Amino acid sequence: MEAQKIQALIILKKNMLGTFNNDQPVIEIEVKGITGISKKINALVDSGFNGYIQIPFVEAFPLGLVLAGVEASTLADGSNSSHLVCKGQVCVEGKCVDTTIDIHHANIVLLGTKLLKELKKTFVLDASIGKVEIIDSK
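The structure assignment produced for this chain is given below.
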């Protein structure tokens, strides 16, 4: 069974499909700092997040991201929060963009709609069959 899981993951990466993790759409991305250090991480595709990308402190610091400032934002529950904003590069399906990266305490990686727009990508979700895909926009 383990060999089947590994084979499935290889196929997903080849086709750039994502997966459903606890009924949430997840896709693999690559985040790079100015030092050239990069890391592939799984990001939750969040259509309600209108930013580029959000990563936790534990993922950000080893990459050598450059601090750009502090930003305030309003969360989905209406509360306000401040967070660090850094400069880095994000790659999805081999297409990279220099962007700002929100750094939060929460141990979650979010991929937002601004990043999809910047990369000219379309998010395809079919929850009934667990299909998650990020493709080139037409």
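Interim note for the steering committee: The two ends are 38 Å apart (CA to CA). Strands lie at 19-21, 24-32, 38-45, 53-56, 66-74, 80-92, 95-104, 110-111, 121-126, 131-136.
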